[in-house]
Amino acid sequence: MERAYSKPFVVRITILGFIAGLAVILLAFFIAAVTGGYSFNFSGIVEMHRIMPVLYFLDIFPLLIALASFYISRYISRIRMESESSSEETIHRQRKLYHFVEKLQEGDESVEYIPDEGDALGKAIVNLRNNISQSRKEEEIRRKEDEQRRWSAEGMARFGEILRLNNDNVEELSFQIIRNLVNYVGANQAAFYLLEDDDEADVHFRMTACYAYERRKYADRIVPWGDGLVGACALEKETIFLKKVPDSYLNITSGLGKANPRCLVLIPLKLNDQVHGVLEVASFNIFEKHQLEFMEKIAESVATTISTVKINLRTAKLLRESREQAEELALKEEQMRQNMEELQATQEEAARQSEKFISFSNSVNHTMIRADFDVKGTLTYANTKFMQKLEYSSTAEVEGKPLDIFLDRRDRVWFEEVWKKLSKGGKHFEGNMKLATKTGKELWILATFTCMRNTMGDVDKILFLALDASGQRAKNLELEGQVNAFSRSVVKADISPTGDMIAVNDMYIETLGLPYEVAMKKNIFETVSPVDRQNVEDAWDDIIHGNPFDGKLRVNTGNNDEKWLQVSLVPVNDTNGEIAKVLLIAYDITSEVHLAIEVQQKEETIRKQEELIQQKEVEQNKKLRETREEITNQYRETEKIKVRNEKLLEELSEAIVTTDHDGLILFMNKAAENLFTVKHDEVANQNVRILFSDTVKDNFVTTYLDPARKKIVGQRQRVTLNPRKGKEVNATMVVYEVKTGREITYTAFFQPTTNS
To answer: For residue 347, what pLDDT band results from cuts at 50, 70 and 90?
Structure first.
């Protein structure tokens, strides 16, 4: 293919050459005419041709000059156009690279730049762009993870405050939880199911709250234990996450209509493997992993709070019942004491006023169980109350019967010793005991056995008086069981008004980690942490004046650790209305307090990390600007050096060929073009083997031509070159290796030698 050139330039130079040649001929004819005496006209010129025929050859000189001008101008035009094309291509590549760098400076990483094989700077900038993009992607991932952690921490703190403020009302607590949870996680509807297991025959879940579209819904659903997804979630004690919700299960309804949610989450509210309820959340959007983990953590905290609320309610109920029963028992004991005092007074008065005994006896028969026994224990008289309580229909069934048949078989052994003392005129007996009715039922009584003496002072008979205490006894046993269960589940202590310990339960010993003797010796002010001691001392005066105290206190354990307790200090009055003792009831909340502290510490850590990240971003942007400026300066300096080196190498007499590590030709000077009879533009970016014939046998040259073999670097050797055009050439050859970053180039110097 013929190489392009500028035709107007060639024509102009050719014409100028022809005119110059013509001018030279005319000048020659003029000089010849002047020196030879010829006339300078057409006839004179013809005469000179006749005399000097050699001038005919001079006539074609303008044509020769014009022809030479034509070829010379065409060659010059080609060189200029190729140089301009190469320069434009270099400038175009530089402009593209500069535009690419400007876009990077503006933060636009989407712009593309494809560097040439030899464009080391372009490749370095592209690699820099890729590294920056990768760093930003990694930073975005870290930022997203930090945002998720901060979101979870803020949510935990927010719900911790909700649980703290609403821990006395389960329904309000459940509504506040689902309302805030729906808004915080971006859900559409939620329901709160609370386990009601007071009746073992009817264990079920009751929907205590329902919330959708920022409105409170009417909650009236009852789910039996084990039924549906709610029951399955409670049985498995694991979270159920459905991305495909059955059409008939749940609809999210608003004023615009109703639709089936895209996902449904049911989370058990469990604490210590015990389920207290189920949290159900529905949404049109699929929940992410961190949202599910957040809701599960919230469920754990809610379960802890619900468990505490239940215990508090149960404790308050037991305490209220205990107070009522204690007051009732104290009243009855007072009545019994008064009755017994009256009975004793009556017995003493009966010795002096026998006529009043009958009246008293009749009144007793109407109010108390009464029977008379002789000293041998044989029943001689029984009143109607005795017959009714022991289920006998007539006195014939009981008179003459021994006392043993009316006693419970377990009381006969110990009462035998009591009876022996009574029959000998010993001290009267008072106390609780158990009788056996005709049908074998147990009858608890508050009994009195008193000796009745004759005028001689001997024991005549034994008077038996009693009150039915079966109902009160059953209540006392139930109350004792509840109090025992309560004592095993909470920290409990009885404290005197001065702050000394009266009694402590096992949970108190276990929580404080102290031996029983040590715990009893420490008063309440020595037990609490020095930080809270002043607060307790300030509140103690209010407590012993009848004002209960509720709050959080820190106590010192036997291991020199601190524990947090949720404490209630309740004053207990005696029958005279005076403060008899102070009842301490507490729960260990150390883990909850530590969790709150940990959340606060994590928030502070996240805040510091954010500040550090912002500082690093500022520093990174500054370094990036400096790097961009440095790269731009290096690029300009490199271009200057490259142009200067190429000009220098062009003028060397040695043939120079530069290739990359793959053997592709990057540069040839004019001496190399002459040596291999080929132009640089014809072989640029082609393998260097194109300069040699396929029959190269010299080992030094072969290692240079093969990219896979290690070059012989720095050694000057005589070689025989086999150009594809021309004859074999003897030359001295040396190869140098240059490393620029990760790029490796090889420069070969060839100096032809003459055969000696």
So the answer is: low
